[in-house]
Amino acid sequence: MNQPLPHAALVRQPLPVAVRDALQARFGERFSTSPGVCDHHGRDESPFPPAAPDGVVFAHTTEEVAEVARLCNEHRVPLIAYGAGSSLEGHLLAVAGGISLDLSEMNKVLSVQPEDLNVTVQPGVTRKQLNQEIKDSGLFFPIDPGADASLGGMCATRASGTNAVRYGTMRENVLALTVVTADGRIIKTGTHARKSSAGYDLTRLMIGSEGTLGIITEVTVRLYPQPEAISAAICSFPSMGSAVRATIETIQLGVPVARVEFVDALAIRAINRHDNLSMPEAPHLFFEFHGTEAGVKEQAETVQQIAADNGGQGFEWATRPEDRSRLWNARHTAYFAMLQLKPGCKAVTTDVCVPISRLADCVTETERDLNASSLPCPIVGHVGDGNFHVAILTDPEKPEELAEAETINRRIVERALAMGGTCTGEHGVGLHKMDFLVSEHGEDALDLMRAIKNALDPNHILNPGKIFRPVR
Ligand SMILES: Cc1cc2nc3c(=O)[nH]c(=O)nc-3n(C[C@H](O)[C@H](O)[C@H](O)COP(=O)(O)OP(=O)(O)OC[C@H]3O[C@@H](n4cnc5c(N)ncnc54)[C@H](O)[C@@H]3O)c2cc1C
User: Fold this and answer.
1) Which of 104, 128, 156 is the last residue of a domain?
2) Rounded Cα–Cα distance for residues 388 and 261 (Å)
3) For residue range 420-472, what is the model confidence (pLDDT) as tens digits?
């Protein structure tokens, strides 16, 4: 049995024949209604049951996106933008049917402006592709959500990940967008200038809107000079609390670490099995330092001392690129390694983020909850930002396990909110975090969000049923 979908109020209508015929005539083989293609576009890593769209359009240009939006708007057909499909909270599920607009073939790097440290890309460019294509420019794009997500999808979820502690999230790094509105208008938000006070900030409105306010068809992001020196380090700790305290001291001291990632003992066991490694099964911190040779050495020595003061052991360096990539590869495959702790499971993933001063309390109290649970609950976290994820491993056929996972999630979220934090640091709301928005923002703020949605998408065609629970 699967978790019930929170979209009961949405009615799934058959795709109007006029829309199907128009898309077929306009896009030919780039419009598919094959069950395999539709199924692929209506599922994700979340424990929610798949919900396939009625058809998939593979768009190539902004004008094509606008045409599809106009057609869907005219016929009140749901339209769901699809990037790389790596989102975790049911974002892509076509809970009311409709058209999935696959943007992965809009994957050109349009222009690099090295003097301004900017690049403009189509939305289907993935972060790895971008870094590969600009590597000879001496610049790089730092936002790294682990998965090889698309820039459009990363904008839409306001993604961050391991490097955000140093370089910020998509919120800080997007300068301008081209957006197709629900009724098919093409608008530009922002400019290539580093700052602007010209009116409402539509760029920031779109960042994190999860495909519910517009379809992003071009993205201009900041780039950074590739650091002269990079080194990585790994260190084990006697407890989660001591690892987190070492992180807090590092941040409060102003050490400009590029990455500081927490991995608990159970997650280390999973990584060891998955990657054939032999790290001690204890809580670990993974660090990365960027800067000049001297700066990196100084940062690393400071952090090594902080780690030692907090009981850290076996501080190990990796300066050679191949050693660093082995280390970070282990961290990046942690999610899939953790799933293998319980074959056939699905992870209910928590994503709270709290002010750094409350992180130790939040993690320690959460640890007590998890120790009392019957489910395996490995933890990883971008702790430098105060953000951590518990992967609560559940058998999707057992409703009692899903219910227990949601109870744990709720307790963690309520704790984070009470500490001044958020229910989702980076994954977004999707179908999973809707119930927490009132507690986090208040009813009036949520009403304002609904008013924005109504103004930009009065027919509610854009990714319906996400962010807000539909009103019966
Ligand atoms: C193993 C793993 C680890 C992860 N770790 C992290 C992490 O550390 N940090 C993090 O932030 N995330 C993480 N994620 C989640 C995921 O990678 C991000 O949410 C990512 O930003 C999604 O991008 P995507 O291209 O896959 O988007 P999709 O999954 O295709 O879409 C996500 C949402 O964006 C909308 N959308 C997509 N493209 C557009 C567009 N062009 N215009 C408008 N709306 C659009 C979709 O409708 C949907 O609502 C992880 C996922 C996995 C599987």
Assistant:
1) 104
2) 9
3) 999 999 999 999 999 999 999 999 999 999 999 999 999 999 999 999 876 54
Among 200, 225, 250, residue at a domain's last position? 225
300 lies in the same domain as 383: yes
**260 CA distance to ligand 1 centroid (A)?**
21
Question: Is 208 a pocket residue for ligand 1 (Cβ < 6 Å)?
Answer: no
Same domain? 272 vs 381: yes
Range of the domain at 118: 109-225
Query: 270 and 371, same structural domain?
Result: yes
Could you give the C-alpha distances from 298 to 115, 262, 291, in angstroms and in order? 29, 22, 10
Number of domains in the chain: 3
- Nearest CA, atom 12, ligand 1: 145
> What separation in Å is there between the alpha carbon of 154 and the centre of ligand 1?
5
Q: How confident is the model at residue 76 (pLDDT cuts 50, 70, 90)?
A: very high
pLDDT reported for residue 297: 93
Q: Do 313 and 398 belong to one domain?
A: yes
288 and 259 part of one domain: yes
Q: What are phi and psi of 383, to 5 degrees?
A: -65, -20
Give the residue whose CA is nearest to atom 44 of ligand 1.
211
Measured from the Cβ of residue 278, the count of other Cβ atoms closer than 10 Å reads: 7
Pocket test for ligand 1, best of 58, 87, 206, 221 (most atoms within 8 A of CB): 87
Q: Is the Cβ atom of 388 under 6 angstroms away from ligand 1?
A: no
Alpha-carbon span 350 to 172, nearest angstrom: 23
pTM, two decimals, is 0.96
Apex 387 CA angle, 330 and 341, nearest 5: 40
Residues 220 and 233 in one domain: no
